[in-house]
Amino acid sequence: MSQYVLDAEVRVELGTGASRRLRRADKVPAILYGAGKEVVSLTLDHNKVIHMQEDEGFYTHILTLNIGGESVEAIVKDIQRHPYKPKITHLDFQRVDASQKIHTKVPVHFINEDAATKGGNTVAHHVTEIEITCLPAQLPEFVEVDVAAIAVGATVHLSDVALPAGVVSVELAKGADHDQAVVTLNAPKGAASEEEAEEAAE
């Protein structure tokens, strides 16, 4: 399943000074935790990480970490960046167990926006990612929402989004009052929506 493979070394020297030295040597300090095992401090090559993270899938795919000859499957749980330089300063990885559900976020891809906005309509995105739980094998790379299928003036909520089998929205699982808005298709300014036009005609 994973097309993202990173070589990592176990980090012995810990602390702020050690991390600073690693970054000067173009290395990224990281930690690996989860699956009931001990936390392991790691070092990765910064150039490989910075190149790989340009791909959206880096944040949603299951990655393979090669640590001293052992392959470990994990997902990115947190990424820290330098405030103004194009540098990654720290990574958190969570181990993946095929039998245990993972809790993560996946991006929302809004498709057919050009078709939906041809008449001057505008699209308002309320979220860019959805928090989910699922087994590792069911993890989607992204969730798709077809904007052209939305009626003018209507809003798509989490409950309207088709999630793959086995994938559960964390917010919706909390109850119906957590049914967040995802995207709205607005009529051009000064124009009435279909519903308003119908009401005016009655």
UniProtKB/TrEMBL annotation:
Part of the 50S ribosomal subunit; part of the 5S rRNA/L5/L18/L25 subcomplex. Contacts the 5S rRNA. Binds to the 5S rRNA independently of L5 and L18. This is one of the proteins that binds to the 5S RNA in the ribosome where it forms part of the central protuberance. One of its GO terms (cellular component) is cytosolic large ribosomal subunit. Residues 6-93 form the Large ribosomal subunit protein bL25 L25 domain. One of its GO terms (biological process) is translation. This is Large ribosomal subunit protein bL25. Keywords: Ribonucleoprotein, Ribosomal protein, RNA-binding, rRNA-binding. Belongs to the bacterial ribosomal protein bL25 family. CTC subfamily. GO terms for molecular function: 5S rRNA binding; structural constituent of ribosome. NCBIfam families: bL25_bact_ctc (TIGR00731), PRK05618.1-2 (NF004128), PRK05618.1-5 (NF004130), PRK05943.1 (NF004612). The keyword RNA-binding applies. Residues 101-189 form the Large ribosomal subunit protein bL25 beta domain.
